[in-house]
Design goal:
20 helices; 73% helix; 500 residues
């Protein structure tokens, strides 16, 4: 097999390391809950990755800034991997099963400059899918070819090696019946020898054939995918890129001048929408924000007010985002006056959306005050804040055309996701419900008992402050009983603290 890269010759060792990585992963994850094993697996993968790209860091693409972005993306990878050994939130553990591989793929592709598109462009998704699925499948024959090359060839002068292997096999077949008879006789003659022989089957207790097949299959699958993914990183199909990102933006701007929505048509649409939004805000301003102080219209209850507020949020956000992005990119440019009108209308659209987000946030706060705090309600709060930040970013993008909206949105989304992971949302649920209990004397311990071990420390604090809540101990015991996997691959700080 021809070696296409003189600076990277240890491909055989890379395959062996990928096999060891597959063995480690299947051992730590099969029949074990995710814990510190995630961080160890990520560290193992990156050790193999940096060994593989040694001498190739930076790749062939000439675009500046890709390496900086690649090192930046390493931060969310490490932080997300650490959540499995710090917290026990089942929801985020499930979400991170998708977020972590996505961040790893983005980081490894960008750091090695194997994408012909900038990481914040929508077209980067094509390269991501190609590297994660297309190339590993295309290079599936490479490890098998390497293994075949290691084996002695029948057509070479190594025929004697195959002959010796065949003779050894024949000898083993002939020895099997003889050993069976001899071992039986010796066991009958000596009790000590017999005890040793009878203990041999006990070595394999607890090992089933089905489990062994599954573990071997998982190991082979992880080994092949890891090796082929790294091979695709090392030897991608080289694309000729004759334009820099700046030139591509200029070309896109030139195309948008020729193709796009007519500015008069777009302006009419934005004016109509903004008139409705402004009237809605003015007419309902008193009740929207008066409700935050407890002044609801007659016949409107907390639950109905909050549910309508969130439905309003989702509908308005989707509609306004679908208007905002075309308004930024797809409207044909006219004179300076026309541009100022376009920017003014988009700014008004953003302003009205932020007002409605604040209103919906207040409605949900009323609902929580009346019915308590749950994970879903706090996540909705976080989603509202995230949307508000996105619209603030959009406001600056309207007036600063050189600003990359996609880069700002993706960066904000990554940061927001990390904040939600590390705010320990289940512990915050208990703390907020404790404060509500101080005001109202009401707390839903049954719901809190369905959460993870993250809530045990604040529950113990509540138990100390309010010994009259005798059911807290039963709640804590039920939470502890749900987390029974104490093996070292599943070690988790939250579960460890809850045991004491």
């Amino acid at each position: 097999m021809r070696d296409p890269a003189p600076w990277q010759r240890k491909y055989g060792l890379m395959l062996v390391c990928a096999c060891l990585f597959g063995l480690m992963v299947q051992y730590m994850f099969l029949e074990h809950a995710a814990g510190i094993s995630v961080l160890i697996s990520v560290a193992g993968f990156y050790s193999l990755y940096f060994y593989a790209i040694k001498g190739r860091l930076g790749g062939f693409e000439p675009w500046e800034g890709q390496n900086k972005a690649g090192w930046f993306l390493l931060v969310p990878v490490v932080l997300i991997a650490m959540t499995y050994s710090l917290f026990a939130n089942n929801l985020f553990h499930t979400l991170n099963m998708f977020a972590l591989p996505l961040c790893i793929a983005m980081q490894t592709i960008v750091l090695s400059r194997n994408s012909k598109h900038a990481w914040y462009h929508a077209t980067f998704l094509q390269d991501l899918l190609r590297h994660c699925f297309g190339r590993p499948i295309a290079y599936l024959s490479v490890p098998f070819g390497m293994i075949k090359a290691w084996l002695p060839s029948r057509k070479s002068e190594k025929d004697s090696a195959w002959g010796k292997m065949g003779k050894v096999g024949a000898g083993l077949l002939l020895a099997a019946p003889i050993l069976f008879i001899v071992v039986g006789l010796l066991a009958s003659a000596d009790r000590v020898f017999q005890s040793w022989v009878t203990e041999i089957p006990l070595w394999f207790n607890g090992i089933s054939v089905a489990e062994g097949i599954v573990r071997i299959g998982v190991t082979i699958g992880i080994t092949l995918y890891t090796f082929c993914y790294l091979w695709g990183i090392l030897f991608p199909k080289i694309f000729e890129v004759s334009q820099t990102p700046q030139e591509l933006r200029e070309e896109s701007a030139a195309v948008s001048k020729k193709m796009g929505i007519d500015p008069i048509t777009a302006g009419t649409l934005l004016v109509c929408v903004n008139v409705v939004y402004v009237l809605f805000t003015i007419i309902q301003f008193s009740y929207l924000f008066g409700a935050a102080n407890g002044f609801l219209p007659n016949g409107v209850f907390y639950a109905e007010h909050a549910r309508r507020g969130f439905a309003e949020l989702v509908a308005v956000a989707i509609i306004n985002i679908s208007l905002l992005f075309p308004g930024l990119h797809w409207i044909r440019r006219s004179g300076q006056v026309g541009e100022n009108i376009r920017k003014g209308l988009l700014t008004m659209l953003v302003g009205c959306t932020i007002v409605m987000l604040i209103s919906a946030y207040g409605r949900l706060s009323l609902y929580e005050e009346a019915y308590g705090f749950t994970q879903t309600r706090l996540l909705v709060h976080g989603f509202m804040i995230f949307l508000g930040v996105l619209f603030i970013i959009a406001f600056f993008r309207i007036w600063m055309e050189r600003m990359s909206l996609s880069k700002a949105v993706i960066t904000t989304a990554i940061l927001a996701y990390l904040v939600m992971n590390y705010m320990n949302i289940e512990q915050r649920i208990v703390i907020n419900n404790m404060e509500r209990y101080e005001r109202t004397g009401i707390i839903d311990l049954e719901y809190l008992g369905r959460l993870s071990t993250d809530v045990v420390p604040p529950l113990k604090e509540l138990q100390t402050k309010h010994p009259e809540l005798v059911s807290i101990q039963a709640t804590i015991d039920r939470i502890k009983a749900d987390s029974r996997d104490h093996s070292w691959p599943s070690w988790n700080l939250s579960k460890y603290q809850a045991r004491w």
